[in-house]
Specification:
The chain is 19% helix and 28% strand. It is α/β, with parallel strands linked by helices. The strands form 4 sheets. An 8-stranded mixed β-barrel has the order 1-2-4-5-6-7-8-9. Strands 10-11-12 form a 3-stranded antiparallel β-sheet. A 3-stranded antiparallel β-sheet has the order 13-14-15, with no helix packed on it. 45% of the residues are buried.
Length: 329
């Protein structure tokens, strides 16, 4: 059974040419055969384009990687102009934002600057260090956390999408050192971010308004959900119900779908922390039902998740700011 996806991020600072086949072999083996990913620096601000980007994108794809590109933000550049430079040189690969150059801005001013950058492509995960996470930097589509503890998946806060766990990785057959990463999101998120087909040969873009997906337990199907709670199926996935057909619920803020423990049902999660259970998914409570004393103000679950407890006897909701709320066991 494949393990987590492992990946590498590179820039012109890495020794070139990169031995992409050797990297693929190493990362694939580390993940038990799970497909590796590569995130390649495309641009920095408006004045720099990585001269190795196009060659690395082509070579990484040829070696078998799924490929994304990152925009390294320059705090004193216009976010829309930065975005234009990235898109003109990214060859259409999915975008990630690297947020670490405040250029003399105060914390709050840099947060405001990055909020404008996030608005250019809300689907781009944000590379943040642990201090930036604690200070409330924006992470619309998920956090790519820099945390060099050498322990993939052991992160500073819950809900991290990608963990960059070392900046000094050494790979047989490759010169120099590499930033190595581990994918902590779901298989459906991996397919979504890197434009891979879902089981059944379809993609997220084939479902109008789709915001999230989940892979079935056997890996041969998928559920795809829209903001109003309509659930589509792909492959061998069976539908267990939708909010648009229950005749009662009227929402427009569903942000996630999560498989039940036995796999014969699913949960829908709203941006306000509301939980809706279908099939054999057991309902244990939701954030809006908690007393005010337990919620410490309004939380957004737009970039959060629902994590099932062992046996499906409960779940923990993880909010965008990392707050956790347990229900059931």
């Amino acid at each position: 059974m494949p393990g987590p996806h492992y990946g590498v991020d590179v820039s012109s600072n890495n020794a070139h040419p990169i031995n992409w086949p050797a990297l693929f072999t190493y990362l694939s083996a580390r993940g038990g055969g799970a497909k590796p990913f590569a995130i390649i620096k495309i641009s920095q601000g408006t004045g720099y384009v990585n001269p190795d980007a196009s060659g690395d994108i082509a070579a990484a794809k040829a070696a078998g990687f799924v490929v994304g590109g990152y925009l390294m933000d320059q705090g004193n550049d216009d976010p829309a102009a930065e975005e234009a430079v990235f898109r003109a040189n990214s060859a259409g690969v999915p975008q990630f934002d690297d947020d670490e150059l405040p250029e003399g801005l105060s914390t709050q001013a840099y947060i405001a600057h990055l909020q404008s950058l996030v608005a250019q492509d809300p689907g781009a995960p944000d590379y943040l260090n642990q201090s930036e996470e604690d200070e409330g930097f924006p992470a619309e589509a998920g956090i790519w956390e820099a945390n060099y503890n050498g322990q993939p998946g052991v992160t500073h806060r819950p809900g991290v999408l990608i963990h960059q766990f070392t900046a000094t990785g050494q790979v047989p057959g490759c010169a120099g050192e590499f930033d190595l990463n581990c994918w902590l999101g779901s298989e459906a998120q991996f397919s979504q971010f890197f434009g891979l087909p879902l089981p059944g040969g379809m993609q997220m873009g084939d479902f109008p308004g789709a915001v999230a997906a989940e892979i079935t337990a056997d890996g041969n199907g998928a559920w795809v959900v829209t903001p109003n709670g309509n659930v589509y199926t792909a492959g061998d996935a069976q539908e267990y119900g939708t909010l648009t057909t229950d005749g009662v619920t009227d929402v427009d803020d569903i942000v996630g779908i999560f498989r039940s423990w036995a796999g014969n049902g699913y949960y829908l999660l709203g941006a306000d922390g509301a939980v809706y259970a279908f099939g054999d998914a057991a309902f244990h409570g939701s954030y809006p039902g908690l007393p005010a004393a337990d919620t410490q103000g309004q939380r957004s679950f737009g970039g959060g998740s629902l994590k099932l407890h062992f046996g499906g006897t409960g779940y923990t909701l993880v909010a965008l700011d990392g707050s956790r709320y347990g229900f059931g066991s």
